[in-house]
Amino acid sequence: MREPKMKPEDMKFCAIVPVYRHEATSRKVAETLAAQGLSVILVDDGNTPEGHEILVQVANEVPNTTLVTREKNGGKGAAVISGLEKAYEMDFTHALQMDADGQHDADAIPFFLKAAKKHPFDLVAGMPQYDGTVPKSREQGRKITNFWVAVETLSRSIPDSMCGFRVYPVAKVWPVAKKIRTYRMGFDIEILVRLSWAGLKMYFYPIKVKYPEDGVSNFRALGDNVEISWTHTKLCLGMLIRSPIILGRRLFKKKK
Known about the structure:
By secondary structure, this protein is α/β, with parallel strands linked by helices. It has one domain: Spore Coat Polysaccharide Biosynthesis Protein SpsA, Chain A, CATH 3.90.550.10. Helices cover 48% and strands 17% of the residues. The protein contains 8 helices and 7 strands, in the order E-H-E-H-E-H-E-H-E-H-E-H-H-E-H. A 7-stranded mixed β-sheet has the order 3-2-1-4-6-5-7, sandwiched between helices. Strand 1, helix 1 and strand 2 form a beta-alpha-beta unit. Helix 1 packs parallel to helix 2. The protein is globular, with a radius of gyration of 18 Å.
């Protein structure tokens, strides 16, 4: 069944920026997004009272910026889910997810928005191109995760599942996202796998990623690696249950 046509002028874009301990860089990110004509949804993921006040000020001073406040820190996934919920409530058709620490190349925003307009019912995601600042442990961990994602989806259609720079078609993603209970770093992985299971088409494009020397990392070496491992275990089990549907859908498409 063909998707109904969506004209570019009917598309309503916003940006979701989860913020925890990155209050200092959130203003520049919000200003950059607003300069691209995007409404901005900042998600305060349980920051300190001082950090919260900074975000309130940013939301008040940067045009078309909304602040969503979570009383307790829940993790990146929980913050993105809260942002998607707000985007859905505000009738945005598409949401660009972007990190608050400035590691993603902001110059790529127009290209990704244009790609989303070309594929309005699909997901458009970043495929990171690293410079020398990337920690080797992160780079190796990403390769391991991408291997398991290929197993979990029975395909190589997701070349990178951990890049937090992507454009979601809100109406299709929100029903899936609100059921996810992986609230920290495993969220970016799980949402793509589950969307793949749901049959959502995805397009990946390169984006430059850098790790600022004085940046604050929220990655917990033990806790987040345990969560990611559990996420892959859960998704592998889910793949086994869904494999007849996944393979059947693929066979049906080939016959068409």
